[in-house]
């Protein structure tokens, strides 16, 4: 089969590139995955511990809330300990932005029109420039400016885009261009329409998200539909999946969205069947155990886990490692798409983990000279 599959190509929107610390956003850079801590930022140790878990899950950028001086006071320690750039969310308090910039934040999440006078915006811009900070403008349907609500009557795509452009102008008026923008809404249709409009109106990088998406299952589905729709259209340079769940789960879901569209590769991509009466082993429990035990693998690779021989061989031929359920507790193992050997039900789980770890080490060694395993297509 030809490896050229034009029906799978996604043409990404062309935009300017900015830097969030060491992470490039926009241009031809990989789409970055972000999350946000839910600890008290003033509790530096708990916040650092949570950031570490997010880093282990693959987070490229982590945002922390800085609503008070105690939080920005702890930020310097947090930034020093973090291995990824830290974004400081300062809400409406411009002094927190000044403190966060001085403390080493790589980016400030701030809507310049909400912090008061032009002099305050100028102060924040000076602090950002002096400290090499970028800025993320975050427009939200739930907190639109009063004049826009009066003008449009309700949150709508046009209102979100106008709000974003108003905030952008305030930064441009102060000769600041290192910004990215989000126009989030909990309503998928509203968010997607607003992002589509903003993508045509500006050349800056876009931060995607469906805000207040819900719990782990509902929020994952909702975010996948909204964020996936925009990514498929080529829109989006960094994403945050907003879940009422631990932040590392947001990172995992974000990578799964990107992996499903071929936009980013990280870790093991599992292909598995929903199981039925034909299964030769407990597919559901096996996949659950494998996902837990292989979460530490960062090297991109594929694993198929199929309960029977109906679709199993075909799927296994397309993956790095595959297992197909057979009779009498003996299951066929495929390596690089070719039947290789059998394994018993009792030994299967440990055996698959061992095969994946060995294959990951092999692939990692082969890619060391070309920039590592976590990349983009």
How is this structure best described in words?
This protein is α/β, with parallel strands linked by helices and 377 residues long. It contains twelve helices and 17 strands. The protein has helices at 44-57, 69-81, 94-102, 118-131, 146-152, 157-173, 188-201, 216-232, 247-260, 283-293, 312-316, 345-367, and strands at residues 17-20, 23-26, 32-36, 61-65, 86-89, 107-109, 134-140, 179-184, 207-208, 238-240, 264-265, 268-272, 301-306, 321-324, 330-335, 338-344, 375-376. The strands form four sheets. An eight-stranded parallel sheet has the order 8-7-6-5-4-3-10-9. Strand 13, helix 11 (312-316) and strand 14 (321-324) form a beta-alpha-beta unit. The protein is elongated, with a radius of gyration of 23 Å. The model has no long low-confidence stretch (mean pLDDT 93). Converts 2C-methyl-D-erythritol 2,4-cyclodiphosphate (ME-2,4cPP) into 1-hydroxy-2-methyl-2-(E)-butenyl 4-diphosphate. Residues 16-254 form the IspG TIM-barrel domain. GO terms for molecular function: 4-hydroxy-3-methylbut-2-en-1-yl diphosphate synthase activity (ferredoxin). Residues 270-357 form the IspG C-terminal domain.
């Amino acid at each position: 089969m030809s490896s050229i599959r034009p029906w799978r190509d996604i043409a990404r929107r062309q935009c300017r590139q900015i830097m969030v610390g060491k992470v490039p956003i926009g241009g031809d850079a990989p789409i970055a995955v972000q999350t946000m801590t839910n600890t008290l930022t003033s509790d530096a140790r708990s916040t650092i511990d949570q950031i570490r878990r997010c880093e282990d899950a693959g987070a490229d950028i982590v945002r922390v809330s800085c609503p008070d001086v105690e939080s920005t006071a702890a930020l310097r320690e947090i930034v020093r300990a973090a291995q990824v750039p830290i974004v400081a969310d300062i809400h409406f308090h411009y002094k927190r932005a000044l403190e966060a910039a001085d403390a080493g934040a790589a980016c400030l999440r701030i809507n310049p029109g909400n912090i008061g006078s032009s002099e305050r915006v100028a102060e924040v811009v000076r602090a950002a420039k002096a400290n090499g900070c970028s800025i993320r403008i975050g427009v939200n349907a739930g907190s639109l400016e009063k004049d826009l609500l009066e003008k449009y009557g309700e949150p709508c795509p046009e209102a979100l885009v106008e709000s974003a452009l108003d905030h952008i102008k305030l930064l441009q008026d102060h000769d600041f261009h290192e910004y990215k923008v989000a126009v989030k809404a909990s309503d998928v249709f509203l968010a997607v329409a607003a992002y589509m409009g903003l993508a045509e109106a500006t050349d800056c990088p876009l931060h995607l998200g469906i805000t207040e998406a819900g719990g782990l299952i509902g929020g994952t589905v909702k975010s996948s539909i909204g964020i996936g729709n925009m990514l498929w259209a080529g829109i989006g340079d960094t994403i945050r999946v907003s879940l009422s769940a631990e932040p590392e789960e947001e990172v995992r879901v974000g990578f799964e969205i990107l992996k499903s569209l071929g936009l980013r590769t990280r870790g093991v991509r599992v292909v598995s069947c929903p199981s039925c009466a034909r299964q030769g082993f407990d597919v559901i429990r096996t996949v659950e155990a494998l996902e837990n035990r292989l979460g530490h693998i960062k090297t991109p690779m594929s694993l198929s886990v199929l309960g029977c021989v109906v679709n199993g061989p075909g799927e296994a031929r397309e993956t790095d490692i595959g297992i197909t359920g057979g009779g009498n507790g003996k299951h066929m193992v495929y390596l690089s798409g070719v039947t290789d050997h059998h394994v018993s039900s009792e030994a299967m789980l440990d055996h698959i983990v061992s095969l994946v770890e060995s294959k990951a080490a092999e692939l990692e060694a082969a890619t060391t000279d070309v920039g590592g395993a976590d990349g983009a297509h």
